[in-house]
Amino acid sequence: MSRDLNRPNVVLILADNLGWGELGCYGGGVLRGAATPRIDKLATEGLLLHNFNVESDCVPTRSALMTGRHPIRTGCRQSVPAGFPQGLTQWEKTLAECLKDNNYATAHHGKWHLGDIPGRYPSDRGFDEWFGIPRTTDETQFTSSLGYTPEVADLPYIMKGKSGEQSENVAVYDLEKRRLIDEMLVDQSKDWLSRQVNEEKAFFLYHPLVHLHFPTLPHQSFAGSTAQGDFADSMAEMDYRVGQLIDHIDNLGIRDNTILIFASDNGPEFRPPYRGTAGPWSGTYHTAMEGSLRVPFIIRWPGQVPEASTSNDIVHVTDIFSTIASMTGSPVPLDRPIDGIDQTEFFKNPNAIKSSRTGFLFYIKEELRAIKWKDWKMHYVWEPKVNQSSGRLESPYLFNTVRDPKEESDILAFNTWVVQPMMKLKSEFDRSLKYDPAPPDPLKQF
Asked: Residues in domain Sulfatase N-terminal (predicted)?
């Protein structure tokens, strides 16, 4: 396949609940019980971000990634149980649909979590084909849970589908399949990549891994491999699966014309025994702490993104939508606010150019929890750990995330000037919400 910088291929690998501090290239690896040599090597082949930020949990982040819009706009504010309305509404335009409009082949192999009924599956939202799970992985525990019967809660399934056809069930997604799912997904992606290369068509592959979501259970080939338990074994497997995809891309001869991104959807799990770590940052997902917001991000694009580069500039998950669209020359919607910022030039020259983003607002469900601006973070609600909220603060807490990474010392009284640029961010966003009102929370219908 010839190298066409105007139509590069895109492979986007998204880990599930992978905290900032788990990988070797982020200070974890063997310190967390499992070396991650393949992802660590990938980090030396491109740009590693220290300050890549996401939304509060799986659904909000995935909706922001697919639409370039904060979930307060799209209504995808939280993960909801099976059987409740969920997913992107028909009027949202996905990244896959934008690339499809640009004649890209598209596929989704992995965890979707943006719709579990006809009309909202990946094959209905711009992907030529898909294979994976429509919702999430804790459902694998259903069939082994005390008192469970399919009459009271639907069985979870691994599914597949193609554009223009009805999606269908492949197998019950139980604990046995939980151990096998990431191997199955890699096999699907390798087969699809080979087909696209044979057809010489530019492509977009979205591969949302299932690891490290709870129950964090490894494939039998990795069980016991680290002698540090299921979580470490699963991390070793995750690194291996990413390596399989990297090797396949390289062996197909498309390395130089493929943008490869590896990232996580949110901070680490807080529930034992699957609790993860965010390294130097406090908190887990479902909070507004840095450990929730900051996650791993690596991008490789040979000849375009410099090797062995790092940056602590702020980038947000919505930016990935705008940046991939820009890199591929794909159109984005002009009839709605897009929160994502095109970071193409920053990614290409991070040593000389700053990120185009200075900050963002962070919501959990409908509530503004924090504002992040440059090296500063202001909390309106204090919840350092899940289910330990002290409620809305009469006087917000302000932290400097460089000098105080664990957000322990409120310094608002000495730095009230910071409120001004933060309030400008808030007022601009509030004005845009006025003309682009958020849809109602679907759970309030019940």
From this structure: 8-329
